[in-house]
Amino acid sequence: MPANLTQQYHKAEAEYRKASTPEDELKWLQVMLAEMPKHKGTDHLQATLKQKISQAKQEIEQFRKTGGKKSGGKSYKIPRQGAGTAVIIGGPNAGKSQLLATLTHANPTVAPYPFSTTEPQPGMMDWEDVFVQLIDTPPITPDFFEPYMTGYIRAADLVLLMVDLDSDDGIDQLQEVLQKLNSGKTRLGTETYIDEDDIGLTFTRTFLIGNKIDTPDATTRLDLLHEFCPLPFEEYCINATDNDSLTPFRKVIYDAMGVIRIYTKLPQKKEADFDRPFTIKRGGTLIELAELIHNDYVKNFRGARVWGEAVHDGTPVKGDYILHDKDIVELNS
C-alpha cells in the first residue's frame, strides 16, 4: 500500500534535513509523525519515526546531563543565508578553496599544499539579483573526516564534489571520499531525499566537478575516471581560477537551488522593490510568501494582486495561487 505522504509531511521532512540541533530534529520528527497518514502502508515508517524520536529525546537528555557539553569533536554553526546552500567537498588539493574564492568575496587560504583548509568557511555567490551560499570544507580522507561535515552535507541543497584532474592521485582521492561517506548515513545522490525505510539515511543532490580541466593530461584522467569510477551525478568540468569561464556555472548552481524570485510592492508605491527579491521553492504559493515576509500577513491574509507571466497585470489572487519566477506581488493589508 502506498504511503501517500502529504505536502505538510514533506515540508517537515525538508526542515528535519536542515536541523542542526537535537531539539530541532525532535521538533520536526514529531511533526512528520503527526502529519503522516495512519494506515498499513505507513506502519513501518511510523515505527522508524518513533524510534528516531526516542533517540532524539535521549540525546537531548544526555546533552543536559553533561551540562551542555557536546561530544564528538568541534562544531561550527553557519546560519543559512541567500537563495540556498551548496557545500563544496573533496580530497586534498582538489581546488575547493579556490572555487570559493573565485565565486564569492570570501578569502579562504588557497595554497598548493594539502590541508590548508582546517575549518568550514562560507561565502556568498552572486547571480543576477540574488545570492547563493557556498561553504568550503576541510578535505575528506580515509584518516580525516570532521563529524560536523555530515550535518552540512545533509542540510545542503547541493553538494559540489570536486576532483583534481591535474593529479594522478585525483581519482583515488575521489574514491576515498565516496567510501568514507557511503560508510555512514549521510550520502551523495542524484536527488535529495530521505530513505522512507530508514529515516536516518539521507541523500543530498550532488554534482561532480572536474577541476583544472585545462591542465595537461586532464582529459585523459577524466576518461579514466569515467572508465574506472563511473558516477551517476551531473558532471561539470571547470577551471576554478578562471572567473570568466565560471559565469555559466554560477547559473547551474543557482538553478539547482530550485527557487524562484518574487518582487513585492506596497499598494501606495508604483514600483516594486527590485533590489531585494524573496526566494521560495519552485511551486510555492502566495501564502508561503506571506509567511516569509511576516506572520502578521498570514494572520490577516486577504489575498494579493499579481503582475507576471501567468496573469494579467494586477490580477487579484488567493493564498493558493502558485507563484512564478519574477512575479510582482502586492499583498493586501
**Average pLDDT number:** 88
What multimeric state do the chains show? single chain
Tell the overall outline: globular
User: Percent helix among the residues?
Assistant: 25-40%
Distance between the termini: 45 Å
Strand runs, count: 13
The gyration radius over C-alpha positions equals 22 Å
Task: Characterize the main sheet.
Answer: 8 strands, mixed
Helix/strand order: HHHEHEEHEHEEEHEHEEHHEEE
Our estimate of the beta-strand percent is 15-25%
- Give me the number of helical elements: 10
Spans of at least 5 consecutive residues whose pLDDT stays below 50 are: none
Structural class estimated from helices and strands: alpha/beta
What does this structure look like?
- The protein is α/β, with parallel strands linked by helices and 333 residues long.
- The protein is 33% helix and 23% strand.
- The protein is built from ten helices and 13 strands.
- The strands form two sheets. Strands 1, 2, 3, 4, 5, 6, 7 and 8 form an eight-stranded mixed beta sheet that branches. A five-stranded mixed beta sheet has the order 10-9-13-11-12, with helices on both faces.
- It is globular, with a radius of gyration of 22 Å.
- The mean pLDDT is 88.
